[in-house]
Write a sequence for this structure.
C-alpha cells in the first residue's frame, strides 16, 4: 500500500480440483501464521447436510474447528457470530456456502477483525471477493454494508461442477452485466466531475472480457470454472480499488434491486436479474444488445421475463422503480424518459429472445 492507495487484496486465490480436501495445505502455503489458530466454520444447516464429509474434513484440518449453522443472512446474525468470535478468542472464520453464507461470514469477520477464508460452494455472483456484504436488517429489508475483503479465497472446481446450473448461470449474468455498469460509471463521472479509477475500470472490463470472449462454452468444464472464478474475483477487487460498487453496478443492478425490494415473490437470482436488466440498459445507453443476446443464447441463460413470472406491467413498473431505488446513483436512467411503448417493445423482444 502506498501513500495514494487505500485498498486491500487477498493473499491467496486458489482454484483447484478437490481444493476443499487440502485447504489446510493451501492456507499453510500462503498464510502459515494462522495454522493452529482457533477457527470456526460458518455454513447453513442444509449445506452441512449435503457436504458433511467435506466440511468435517475441513474442520479436522483446522484443529477440529467448530461448525456453526447460521440462522439467517442478517446483520443481527453476523453481529452474533462476531460476538462469539471475540468472546471465545477465535482468530479465523471460514465461510462455506453461497452468497448468503459468504456475506454473513465476511461481515462477522470484518466486525471481529478475524482472518476470513472464503470457500464458495457455487459461483452465483461477485460477492465472494467484494468489499461489501448484503444483509437483512429489519424483516426482509436488506442493506449493502462495507466490509473487508477475504484474506483467502479457495475454489474447489469439483464443487462448482456439481453445483446447480442456475447458480453458475447467475454468476455469468453478474459478470456480463459489467458491460452496462461501466458505461453508467463513466456517465456518472462525467456528470459529477469525479474520477473513474483506471485500474478498477480495467479490472472490471477484464472480468467481463474473460467470460464474454471465452472459447470454452461448457459450464461444467474446469477451464471455464477457473475463468469464471477469476472473473468474479476481479470484479470484487475492482470494487475494492474503486472504493464503491460502481465498476460492477449500474442501471441493470437498479432493475435487480427494484425486483428484490418491490417484487420479493418473483423467484429469480441476483445474477439472472441483472442479466435481464442488462438488455434494456444496453438499449437505453444507445448500445446494440445483440452481442449480449447471442452470448446468453449460447449459454442457455434465459432472459425471457415470462419465465420468471414477470408480466409487461410488472416489467414497466420495475424500471420505473429502478430510478429511485438507490438515491444518488447516477445512471442512464437519469438521462432518459421511460416510454411505455418502448418498454413493451423491449419486453416482447426479450420474450422472443431476439
Amino acid at each position: 500500500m502506498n501513500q495514494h492507495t487505500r485498498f486491500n487484496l487477498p493473499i491467496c486465490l486458489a482454484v483447484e480440483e478437490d481444493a476443499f480436501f487440502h485447504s489446510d495445505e493451501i492456507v499453510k502455503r500462503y498464510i502459515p501464521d494462522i495454522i493452529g489458530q482457533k477457527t470456526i466454520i460458518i455454513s447453513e444447516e442444509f449445506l452441512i447436510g449435503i457436504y458433511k464429509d467435506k466440511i468435517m474434513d475441513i474442520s479436522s484440518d483446522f484443529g477440529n474447528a467448530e461448525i456453526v449453522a447460521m440462522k439467517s443472512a442478517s446483520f443481527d446474525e453476523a453481529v452474533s457470530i462476531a460476538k462469539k468470535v471475540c468472546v471465545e478468542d477465535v482468530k479465523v472464520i471460514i465461510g462455506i456456502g453461497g452468497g448468503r453464507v459468504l456475506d454473513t461470514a465476511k461481515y462477522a469477520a470484518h466486525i471481529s477483525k478475524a482472518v476470513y477464508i472464503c470457500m464458495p460452494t457455487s459461483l452465483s455472483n461477485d460477492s465472494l471477493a467484494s468489499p461489501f456484504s448484503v444483509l437483512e436488517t429489519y424483516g426482509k429489508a436488506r442493506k449493502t454494508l462495507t466490509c473487508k475483503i477475504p484474506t483467502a479465497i479457495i475454489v474447489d472446481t469439483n464443487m462448482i461442477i456439481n453445483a446447480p446450473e442456475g447458480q453458475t448461470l447467475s454468476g455469468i449474468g453478474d459478470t456480463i452485466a459489467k458491460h452496462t455498469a461501466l458505461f453508467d460509471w463513466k456517465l456518472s463521472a462525467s456528470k459529477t466531475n469525479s474520477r473513474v479509477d483506471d485500474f478498477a475500470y480495467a479490472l472490471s472490463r477484464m472480468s467481463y472480457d474473460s467470460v464474454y470472449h471465452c472459447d470454452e462454452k461448457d459450464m461444467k468444464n474446469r477451464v471455464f470454472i477457473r475463468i469464471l472464478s477469476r472473473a468474479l474475483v476481479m470484479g470484487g477487487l475492482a470494487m475494492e480499488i474503486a472504493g464503491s460498487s460502481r465498476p460492477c453496478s449500474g442501471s441493470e443492478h437498479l432493475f435487480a434491486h427494484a425486483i428484490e425490494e418491490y417484487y420479493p415473490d418473483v423467484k429469480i437470482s441476483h445474477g439472472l436479474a441483472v442479466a435481464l436488466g442488462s438488455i434494456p440498459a444496453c438499449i437505453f445507453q444507445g448500445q446494440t444488445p445483440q452481442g449480449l443476446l447471442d452470448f446468453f443464447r449460447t449459454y442457455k441463460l434465459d432472459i425471457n421475463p415470462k419465465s420468471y413470472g414477470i408480466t409487461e406491467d410488472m416489467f414497466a413498473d420495475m424500471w420505473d422503480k429502478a430510478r429511485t431505488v438507490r438515491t444518488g446513483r447516477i445512471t442512464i436512467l437519469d438521462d432518459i424518459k421511460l416510454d411505455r411503448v418502448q418498454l413493451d417493445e423491449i419486453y416482447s423482444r426479450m420474450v422472443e429472445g431476439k
Remarks:
- The chain has two domains: 12-163, 166-352.
- The domain at 12-163 is CATH 3.40.50.1970 (Rossmann fold).
- The first strand starts at residue 12 and ends at 16.
- The radius of gyration is 20 Å.
